[in-house]
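Practice problem: ABM domain-containing protein
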Amino acid sequence: MPIVEITSWEATDAYIADPSIFKPVVEGITKSDGCIGMHSGLAEEDRKRFHNFIVWETLEHHKALTSQPSFAEWLKIIQSVKVGESKTYHVDFVKDFTPALTAPTTEILRMTLNEGKTKEDLYNILSTMATKIDAGNAKYAPVTWGPTLEDSNTFYLTIGWDSTKAHIDFVSDPGFSPLVGTLREIATLEMFHSSLSSSG
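Answer key — C-alpha coordinates:
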Protein backbone atom coordinates (compact mmCIF):
# COMPACT_ATOMS: atom_id res chain seq x y z
CA MET A 1 0.00 0.00 0.00
CA PRO A 2 1.36 3.48 -0.84
CA ILE A 3 2.26 5.94 1.92
CA VAL A 4 0.09 9.04 2.29
CA GLU A 5 1.71 12.28 3.42
CA ILE A 6 -0.86 14.42 5.26
CA THR A 7 0.01 18.04 5.95
CA SER A 8 -2.29 20.63 7.48
CA TRP A 9 -2.02 24.32 8.22
CA GLU A 10 -4.09 27.48 8.58
CA ALA A 11 -4.39 29.11 5.18
CA THR A 12 -3.53 32.76 4.58
CA ASP A 13 -6.10 35.26 3.35
CA ALA A 14 -4.14 35.38 0.09
CA TYR A 15 -4.68 31.67 -0.51
CA ILE A 16 -8.35 31.82 0.48
CA ALA A 17 -8.87 34.65 -2.01
CA ASP A 18 -6.89 32.94 -4.78
CA PRO A 19 -6.09 29.21 -4.37
CA SER A 20 -4.34 29.23 -7.75
CA ILE A 21 -1.19 30.62 -6.09
CA PHE A 22 -0.60 27.08 -4.81
CA LYS A 23 -0.87 25.60 -8.31
CA PRO A 24 2.90 25.56 -9.10
CA VAL A 25 3.46 23.38 -6.02
CA VAL A 26 0.69 20.99 -7.04
CA GLU A 27 1.94 20.72 -10.61
CA GLY A 28 5.55 20.28 -9.56
CA ILE A 29 5.01 17.66 -6.89
CA THR A 30 2.52 15.59 -8.87
CA LYS A 31 5.08 15.32 -11.68
CA SER A 32 7.76 14.12 -9.26
CA ASP A 33 9.02 10.56 -9.37
CA GLY A 34 6.95 8.30 -7.15
CA CYS A 35 4.06 10.71 -6.65
CA ILE A 36 0.77 8.97 -7.40
CA GLY A 37 -1.49 11.96 -6.77
CA MET A 38 -2.45 14.88 -4.56
CA HIS A 39 -5.76 15.79 -2.89
CA SER A 40 -6.17 19.12 -1.11
CA GLY A 41 -8.76 21.56 0.18
CA LEU A 42 -10.05 23.79 2.96
CA ALA A 43 -12.08 22.49 5.86
CA GLU A 44 -15.80 23.23 5.73
CA GLU A 45 -15.79 23.93 9.46
CA ASP A 46 -13.85 27.19 9.31
CA ARG A 47 -12.75 27.60 5.65
CA LYS A 48 -9.23 28.21 6.98
CA ARG A 49 -7.79 24.81 7.90
CA PHE A 50 -6.06 23.41 4.81
CA HIS A 51 -5.32 19.70 4.32
CA ASN A 52 -2.98 18.32 1.69
CA PHE A 53 -2.79 14.58 0.98
CA ILE A 54 0.12 13.45 -1.21
CA VAL A 55 0.16 9.80 -2.21
CA TRP A 56 3.67 8.36 -2.59
CA GLU A 57 4.76 4.97 -3.87
CA THR A 58 7.18 4.83 -0.94
CA LEU A 59 8.42 7.08 1.86
CA GLU A 60 11.77 7.24 0.10
CA HIS A 61 10.15 8.95 -2.90
CA HIS A 62 8.95 11.74 -0.63
CA LYS A 63 12.38 12.10 0.96
CA ALA A 64 13.93 12.41 -2.51
CA LEU A 65 11.69 15.40 -3.25
CA THR A 66 13.96 17.74 -1.30
CA SER A 67 16.76 17.21 -3.82
CA GLN A 68 14.73 18.56 -6.72
CA PRO A 69 15.92 21.89 -8.20
CA SER A 70 12.49 23.50 -7.73
CA PHE A 71 12.08 22.44 -4.11
CA ALA A 72 13.28 25.76 -2.66
CA GLU A 73 10.82 27.68 -4.84
CA TRP A 74 7.97 25.40 -3.78
CA LEU A 75 8.86 26.03 -0.13
CA LYS A 76 8.59 29.79 -0.69
CA ILE A 77 5.10 29.35 -2.12
CA ILE A 78 4.07 27.10 0.76
CA GLN A 79 5.30 29.70 3.25
CA SER A 80 3.14 32.30 1.49
CA VAL A 81 -0.07 30.29 1.81
CA LYS A 82 0.14 29.23 5.46
CA VAL A 83 -0.10 30.94 8.82
CA GLY A 84 2.22 29.64 11.53
CA GLU A 85 3.46 26.09 11.72
CA SER A 86 2.22 23.13 9.72
CA LYS A 87 1.85 19.53 10.83
CA THR A 88 2.96 16.64 8.65
CA TYR A 89 2.34 12.94 9.13
CA HIS A 90 2.91 9.90 6.95
CA VAL A 91 0.11 7.35 7.18
CA ASP A 92 0.15 3.68 6.30
CA PHE A 93 -3.56 3.09 5.63
CA VAL A 94 -4.90 -0.43 6.12
CA LYS A 95 -7.32 -0.26 3.16
CA ASP A 96 -7.77 1.66 -0.10
CA PHE A 97 -8.12 5.38 0.65
CA THR A 98 -8.98 6.53 -2.89
CA PRO A 99 -12.80 6.38 -2.56
CA ALA A 100 -12.65 8.55 0.56
CA LEU A 101 -10.28 11.16 -0.89
CA THR A 102 -12.22 11.50 -4.15
CA ALA A 103 -15.74 11.62 -2.66
CA PRO A 104 -17.79 14.86 -2.70
CA THR A 105 -16.98 15.27 1.01
CA THR A 106 -14.07 13.69 2.84
CA GLU A 107 -14.22 13.18 6.59
CA ILE A 108 -10.71 13.65 8.00
CA LEU A 109 -10.30 12.34 11.54
CA ARG A 110 -7.09 12.46 13.53
CA MET A 111 -7.15 10.18 16.56
CA THR A 112 -4.72 10.23 19.48
CA LEU A 113 -4.88 7.36 21.94
CA ASN A 114 -6.00 8.26 25.44
CA GLU A 115 -3.89 7.18 28.38
CA GLY A 116 -4.17 3.47 29.03
CA LYS A 117 -5.72 2.69 25.65
CA THR A 118 -4.05 0.60 22.95
CA LYS A 119 -3.91 0.31 19.19
CA GLU A 120 -5.91 -2.91 19.51
CA ASP A 121 -8.67 -1.07 21.42
CA LEU A 122 -8.84 1.51 18.65
CA TYR A 123 -8.80 -0.97 15.78
CA ASN A 124 -11.54 -3.07 17.36
CA ILE A 125 -14.01 -0.18 17.58
CA LEU A 126 -13.02 1.16 14.15
CA SER A 127 -13.62 -2.25 12.59
CA THR A 128 -17.10 -2.39 14.12
CA MET A 129 -17.91 1.14 12.96
CA ALA A 130 -16.48 0.52 9.48
CA THR A 131 -18.65 -2.55 8.93
CA LYS A 132 -21.78 -0.51 9.61
CA ILE A 133 -20.67 2.53 7.60
CA ASP A 134 -19.56 0.51 4.58
CA ALA A 135 -22.91 -1.29 4.54
CA GLY A 136 -24.88 1.97 4.61
CA ASN A 137 -22.47 4.11 2.57
CA ALA A 138 -21.25 1.52 0.08
CA LYS A 139 -20.40 3.79 -2.84
CA TYR A 140 -17.56 5.38 -0.85
CA ALA A 141 -16.37 2.20 0.87
CA PRO A 142 -14.09 1.27 2.42
CA VAL A 143 -13.72 3.24 5.60
CA THR A 144 -9.97 3.27 6.11
CA TRP A 145 -7.49 4.26 8.78
CA GLY A 146 -3.87 3.78 9.67
CA PRO A 147 -1.04 4.68 12.02
CA THR A 148 1.24 7.65 11.50
CA LEU A 149 4.90 6.81 11.11
CA GLU A 150 5.84 9.78 13.29
CA ASP A 151 3.82 8.93 16.42
CA SER A 152 2.67 5.45 17.47
CA ASN A 153 -0.24 6.99 19.40
CA THR A 154 -1.60 9.04 16.48
CA PHE A 155 -3.80 7.65 13.70
CA TYR A 156 -5.80 9.02 10.78
CA LEU A 157 -9.17 7.87 9.44
CA THR A 158 -10.81 8.95 6.19
CA ILE A 159 -14.37 8.35 5.01
CA GLY A 160 -16.11 9.54 1.86
CA TRP A 161 -19.63 10.99 2.08
CA ASP A 162 -22.11 12.73 -0.21
CA SER A 163 -22.04 15.67 2.21
CA THR A 164 -21.23 16.62 5.78
CA LYS A 165 -24.95 16.38 6.53
CA ALA A 166 -24.97 12.78 5.29
CA HIS A 167 -22.19 12.00 7.76
CA ILE A 168 -23.91 13.70 10.69
CA ASP A 169 -27.23 12.02 9.91
CA PHE A 170 -25.59 8.60 9.75
CA VAL A 171 -23.67 8.80 13.02
CA SER A 172 -26.63 10.38 14.84
CA ASP A 173 -28.71 7.25 14.34
CA PRO A 174 -29.51 5.65 17.74
CA GLY A 175 -28.10 2.36 16.47
CA PHE A 176 -24.73 3.94 15.71
CA SER A 177 -24.17 6.86 18.09
CA PRO A 178 -23.09 4.67 21.08
CA LEU A 179 -20.12 3.52 18.99
CA VAL A 180 -18.99 7.13 18.68
CA GLY A 181 -19.10 7.40 22.46
CA THR A 182 -16.89 4.33 22.75
CA LEU A 183 -14.43 5.77 20.23
CA ARG A 184 -14.18 8.98 22.27
CA GLU A 185 -13.34 6.92 25.36
CA ILE A 186 -10.43 5.37 23.48
CA ALA A 187 -9.03 8.37 21.61
CA THR A 188 -9.05 12.16 21.48
CA LEU A 189 -10.54 13.20 18.15
CA GLU A 190 -9.95 16.12 15.79
CA MET A 191 -12.35 16.08 12.85
CA PHE A 192 -12.73 18.10 9.67
CA HIS A 193 -14.73 17.80 6.45
CA SER A 194 -13.40 18.93 3.10
CA SER A 195 -14.25 18.80 -0.58
CA LEU A 196 -10.81 17.88 -1.87
CA SER A 197 -9.45 18.78 -5.30
CA SER A 198 -7.51 15.94 -6.90
CA SER A 199 -4.45 16.22 -9.15
CA GLY A 200 -2.02 13.79 -10.68
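Discussion: The beta strands are 3-11, 35-42, 49-56, 82-91, 105-113, 144-147, 154-161, 187-194, 197-199. Students who identified this feature from the C-alpha coordinates alone can consider the problem solved.
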